[in-house]
Write a structure and sequence with these properties.
about 650 residues, alpha+beta, 16 helices
Length: about 650
């Protein structure tokens, strides 16, 4: 321990001497031996005699002085090191951390905490103004107009589904929506945005809407004809232009709807759209972040409407069996009814045409059968008349002259009790018997029939007589004149004779006619029943289609009424938050815009101290991080090797 103390005591003078050799400075209280001894000699005093002895004390004194000097040098060195370290810390803080990390923390604190509180307070400050009676009534009137027009156009889109109707309706609704926003701002902020500024602002922003809608319409048209090769190839070029146009111009229109009035009040109606878009771009982060705080105010304002909606929803469900979401889903399917009604109408017309055709067929068939049955009945009446001409106990034949070559028939009804008869044909002029025929009805009862084919003209006598046994005999005769055929005439050219040879032939014909009448009546009934059945089926189908059409019309009217009821509910709900929503965006555009921005002021303070900031701090921080990262990688590599 003593040795260590001696070594430390000996090292201090050495340390002081080394410092003096480096700095070239010596302690002020160091004594020079030569100077003191010389002074002693010059004084020629008693001290001169003891100078060798006192020189040793001077040496020890200087040794002690060098030790003190070395000891103070240690403290001065430590102070120097501490000073340099402190300087380094201050430099790192002022030139590296403060312009970068600390500035980032300040920015985060200001824009995340301070600005969040400002947004929160701003959102709450707008709530009381939304409950003013005049503003709510004004909002209800304007939204009722907007909702009515939008409802009608939306209904047209749902019913037609045509792309042209949808595009035109969207343009009208967007324009009317923007007009409602501008008029509301003009009513609520008359001092900053007078009513005279409404329409110039609309004209200024409608250009964005038109260009966006036109681009979108062309894109839709391209998609409809994408299967055409030329259109598909052209789409590759046009989409690169039209798609950004549709998106950017749509966003520009939305931005003008919400924030153009605020910019116009700031720019004194002298609006430069490029300057407006530039200002909007710089304020976009604030406007986007503030949307979440706006929802807080909307949620608070929606409490009372939500309670009312719940009560209305309960009542609607109790009465109709569907709640509001159910009616919403029900109304969305409204486009089904118009095609169904149209289809039912077409099918009903087609079925009516088929029914008329079948009725005409039935009427025609009934006329045909009635005509056939009428003809048959006339034939029956004629046959009965012809049969009645055949008299008992008289010879029956045609009532005209006979022609040469004609085969003429004669008959007489059978006489009861007589079975044997004889026909005799005699030429009246020559008294010559031409034919004698015996006829018996014993085996085959019936009329007595004989036929005679005339070969020569003349007058002939036809007679019939009974032969025994016969209780009531008869002898009948008739005269027949046979003439030659007219010149250029044949037997086929002769008119048909309307007569029956015998009663049996008449009865047979009458039976055939009656059978034909019955068959016609049965066939008529069957075919008419078949047609009536088909007509009945068509009538039932028409009745069903008419009933279905009636149901579709009732459902369509029901859905239309429910649709406008939902629109009215939406208008009532928006009336409570509309003024808040519009004025929030209007006032937010210029919120905290007075003077320089916080980040600009901070940047100016940094550059006032060092013009190279904050790039210098970022550069040093990047270098330091890179070095640390490289050292860590090297350390890991060395550890991996060993």
């Amino acid at each position: 321990m003593l040795v260590k103390l001696c070594l430390i005591a000996a090292s201090l003078p050495l340390l002081g001497f080394l410092r003096s050799s480096i700095d070239g400075k010596k302690p002020d209280y160091l004594q020079k031996v030569q100077t003191v001894v010389k002074k002693w000699h010059d004084d020629n005093g008693w001290a001169a005699r003891f100078s060798p002895f006192f020189s040793l004390f001077i040496f020890l004194y200087n040794f002690f002085v060098w030790g003190v000097y070395g000891f103070t040098s240690i403290f001065e060195f430590v102070g120097f090191v501490i000073q340099k370290i402190w300087w380094l810390i201050l430099w790192v803080w002022n030139e590296v951390l403060h312009p970068t990390v600390f500035a980032l923390v300040k920015y985060l604190w200001h824009y995340l905490v301070v600005f969040s509180w400002k947004f929160f307070a701003f959102a709450f400050s707008k709530i009381p103004g939304a409950f003013q009676k005049e503003k709510m009534l004004f909002a209800f009137k304007k939204l009722l107009l907007l909702g009515g027009v939008s409802g009608l156009l939306g209904l047209a889109c749902l019913l037609t589904g045509h792309i042209v109707v949808i595009v035109v309706s969207a343009l009208i609704v967007f324009y009317l929506f923007q007009y409602t926003v501008f008029v509301t701002i003009s009513y609520c902020r008359t001092d900053k945005f007078p009513e005279i500024s409404v329409f110039p602002g609309l004209k200024l922003s409608v250009l964005w809407l038109a260009m966006s809608a036109m681009s979108t319409a062309i894109l839709v048209a391209l998609s409809q004809f994408a299967d055409v090769y030329i259109v598909a190839g052209l789409s590759v070029l046009l989409i690169q232009v039209l798609l950004p146009f549709a998106v950017l111009f749509g966003l520009a229109f939305l931005a003008t709807t919400l924030y153009l009035p605020a910019y116009m009040s700031e720019a004194d109606d002298d609006v430069d759209m490029l300057q407006f878009l530039k200002a909007l771009l710089f304020r976009a982060p604030k406007l986007i972040v503030s949307q979440s705080f706006q929802q807080i105010g909307i949620a608070i304002l929606s409490v009372i409407p939500a309670v009312v909606f719940l009560l209305l929803n309960t009542g609607i469900k109790q009465v109709t069996g569907k709640d509001l979401p159910g009616w919403g889903k029900h109304v969305v399917q409204i486009e089904y009814h118009i095609p169904a009604i149209t289809e039912n109408y077409k099918n009903s017309k087609q079925l009516d045409t088929e029914s008329v055709t079948l009725q005409q067929s039935r009427d025609s068939l009934e006329k045909v059968f009635s005509r056939q049955i009428g003809v048959a009945r006339n034939q029956l009446a004629e046959a009965v008349d012809l049969k009645n001409k055949i008299e008992d106990r008289k010879i029956h034949t045609i009532e005209r002259n006979a022609y040469v070559g004609e085969n003429q028939g004669f008959s007489m009804p059978e006489i009861p009790g007589c079975t044997q008869y004889e026909w005799v044909v005699t030429n009246v002029a020559t008294k010559r018997e031409l034919k004698r025929v015996s006829v018996s009805t014993a085996q085959k009862p019936g009329s007595l029939v004989m036929s005679q084919k005339w070969t020569t003209p003349g007058k002939y006598n036809i007679s019939i007589r009974t032969k025994a046994p016969c209780n009531d005999g008869v002898d009948q005769s008739i005269s027949v004149d046979v003439v030659s055929l007219p010149e250029n005439f044949t037997l086929n050219d002769l008119p048909e004779d309307r007569y029956f040879v015998s009663r049996e032939a008449a009865d047979y014909a009458i039976d055939l006619i009656n059978k034909q009448i019955q068959e016609n009546q049965l066939s008529k009934k069957e075919q008419l029943d078949k047609l009536n059945k088909e007509i009945g089926i068509l009538t039932d189908r028409v009745d069903y289609l008419q009933f279905s059409t009636k149901e579709h019309i009732e459902m369509l009217i029901s859905k239309i009424l429910a649709y406008f009821g939902l629109v009215l509910l939406l208008v009532l709900y928006l009336s409570a938050i509309w003024t808040y929503w519009v004025t929030y965006h209007y006032d937010m555009f210029n919120f905290e815009q007075e003077g320089k921005h916080y980040w600009v002021r901070q940047l100016e303070e940094m550059r006032a101290k060092n013009p190279n900031q904050p790039l210098l701090g970022i550069f040093v921080l990047i270098i330091f991080i890179s070095v640390v990262f490289a050292l860590m990688r090297s350390y890991d590599f060395i550890c991996h090797l060993f």
